[in-house]
Amino acid sequence: MGTLKGNKLTALTEGLQQIFENCEKRAAHYDANNLFFQEDFDELKDAGYLVMAVPEEFGGYGLQMDQCQVLTRKLAYHAAPTALALNMHVYWTGLVADLWRSGDKSMQWILEEAGKGKVFAAGHGESGNDIPVLYSTCKAEKVEGGYKFTGHKMFGSLTPVWDYLGIHGQDNSDPENPKVIHGFMKRDSKNYEIKNSWDDVMGMRATRSDDTVLNGVFVSDEFIVRKVPAGFKGIDAYILGIFAWALIGFSNIYYGLGQRVLDIVLSSVPKKKSLSLDRPSMAYHPGIQRDVADMFLELESIGPHLDSIAKDWTEGKAYGAAWGVKIFAAKCNAVESVWRMVDKAMDVMGGGGIIRKSGFERFFRDARLGKIHPSNTYITREVIAKGLLGLDLDYQPR
């Protein structure tokens, strides 16, 4: 890392720390009132968080995956929903920057727009589609000058603020060779509506991941970025980059949340009194000690794993098709380990943990969502097993 970048990175990280703490102070309010994290967004955008992965040539900081994940993890420790939603923007800029550095300049416009402050979000979630990105229930119809997309998108984090929504749809005009069409729709596009579907969800409420219904939205050819075969055979550097940046981002977010939960437990347990045991606090209870140790052991297995994957990606390790197995495994290990330790933390916290004013139940609810993020537990184990056994992932019936 050159001196200029080092100085810029130092300034960025030092400036962000206070903002992260500000985000922490607002998190409970956003959750309780089902509000988008607007103040967090404004402060983080002004501080440069949204352009950390954008190359310096386009006005960003040029951080690669290993460095970006450090900041993602730190923000998640203070405000996991804020970090989760912003990951949807950062992963677009990160993967396109990777492609740009490798010589693929076809999506340079995304880096240019992001450098100017435009916000990108993801429109890949669909009901009934358990393998998002690789297949789609959304129809992509070729028309003059571009494609029309018709379908129902779910989990659209950053709904209130995005300028471009990354979407995909399936072109079945050739039934023997269906194609998945990837593109970006602009905010001022016609023929879509946003449905307010995110009130009172279980967790991660501040992301405002509302639904977006596409009713023949036109996306011009200049904003169509990929046309690939449906299924796993359509994975190229762009598709793999979506999985890498999104899933490793998810993993670090839940890891940061897990670190926060452990700190809450370590702070709370010594204050819990034990009348019957005639001891200063519940910290002396052997069962509590065992659970605290187990929580720590769960977390200790996550950090080095994620750091290794991010470092290998940044260095361009040539794992080939094995990258999919590695990415899915890292995400699965992270979110399932965090959930086990947070669930155990609820046992340790006892009845006080379920009371909203304690602050803990919010982390409990947020942590549970990690397992249902793509890739969920079912598809993860299918991909890992079939990949290791050398089976055709597109073989039907599954």
TrEMBL record:
The UniProt record lists the keyword rRNA processing: no
Membrane spanning residue stretches: 237-257
Domain of life: Bacteria
Major enzyme class: oxidoreductase
Molecular-function annotations in GO: oxidoreductase activity
Family according to the record: Belongs to the acyl-CoA dehydrogenase family.
The protein's name in its UniProt record: Acyl-CoA dehydrogenase family protein
